[in-house]
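Field log, afternoon session.

UNIT: design team B
ACTIVITY: writing a sequence onto a fixed backbone
BACKBONE:
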């Protein structure tokens, strides 16, 4: 089968399109023909070595496809079932072997591209808004990169929770997109200082929570956007990792909270995985939320997909199509 392989750490050019042996499912596993694989910032962090992976490896932790074979002791799935996943590895390939416990059935009415597009970033938006800082009616949330893959979903889930949403982005086109998904106010950080804009939009009170996927270039100003006892939820680092800082700063700025969550700890049990994915599929099927697929790339063009996402060009989800 064809797959993307990483033999050395580096830029997008290290993604090699190769022929490798077809995988076979073992006990408790299923072999899935991949219809679409999600491209996420975490894939670029692993490729560069910010998150460690043993070399060589096949990237990709998210996708959707059709079960074509099952291993021993598998009773929950059958050949022909449509499934999606958001953890594991090896999704940048024509076929992937995955633990059955990590596979979620895709209901009728949800396409496999939609399923692949909503799993990782949708469940991230779900745990951020429902668990890490459970938004309440009347809260105000600042969402950085509000038109991005997680951002456009987080805006929608925050509005479902009754929050006021202030978003940031770089262009008027992205601002219009975020407003389409429900953002109440948009700040173009290329035209004005976002902390000053938040101060103006909240009459100096600040926000209950900042959801920050940008990291290095936004972190300290994000702290200044918070009300006393507010939450800075740092869930990405698209501009680079945040440098170490003095925790006394949190005291001085109002007894603030900072957390650095990741999805795997919020889908640690199968019940939690099915809850989050099930909510998203139900809302998609009822057209209560939308997932924006920005671009699809052939699997062979994974290098271009990584350049695109690292260029901060995304307006929704990127998919690779084997």
């Amino acid at each position: 089968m064809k797959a993307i392989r990483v033999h050395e750490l580096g830029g997008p050019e290290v993604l090699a399109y190769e022929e490798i042996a077809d995988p076979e499912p073992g006990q408790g596993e299923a072999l899935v023909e991949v219809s679409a694989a999600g491209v996420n910032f975490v894939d670029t962090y692993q490729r560069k070595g910010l998150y460690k992976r043993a070399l060589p490896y096949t990237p990709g932790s998210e996708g959707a496809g059709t079960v074509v074979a099952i291993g021993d002791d598998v009773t929950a799935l059958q050949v022909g079932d449509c499934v999606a996943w958001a953890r594991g590895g090896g999704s940048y390939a024509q076929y992937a072997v995955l633990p059955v416990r990590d596979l979620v059935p895709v209901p009728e009415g949800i396409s496999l591209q939609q399923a692949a597009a909503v799993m990782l970033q949708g469940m991230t938006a779900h745990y951020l808004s429902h668990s890490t800082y459970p938004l309440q009616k009347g809260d105000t949330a600042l969402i950085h990169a509000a038109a991005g893959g997680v951002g456009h979903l987080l805006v929608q889930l925050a509005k479902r929770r009754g929050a006021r949403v202030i978003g940031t982005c770089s262009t008027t086109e992205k601002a219009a997109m975020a407003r389409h998904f429900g953002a109440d106010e948009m700040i173009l950080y290329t035209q004005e200082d976002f902390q000053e804009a938040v101060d103006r939009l909240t009459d100096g009170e600040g926000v209950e929570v900042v959801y920050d996927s940008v990291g290095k270039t936004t972190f300290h100003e994000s702290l200044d956007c918070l009300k006393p006892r507010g939450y800075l939820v740092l869930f990405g680092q698209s501009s680079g990792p945040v440098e170490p800082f003095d925790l006394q700063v949190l005291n001085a700025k109002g007894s603030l909270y900072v957390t650095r969550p990741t999805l795997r700890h919020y889908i640690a049990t199968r019940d939690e995985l099915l809850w989050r994915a099930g909510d998203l599929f139900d809302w998609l099927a009822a057209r209560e939320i939308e997932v924006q697929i920005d671009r699809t790339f052939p699997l062979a063009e994974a290098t271009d997909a990584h350049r695109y996402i690292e260029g901060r060009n995304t307006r929704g989800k990127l998919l690779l199509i084997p």
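LOG NOTE: The radius of gyration is 20 Å.
NEXT ACTIVITY: expression trials, pending approval
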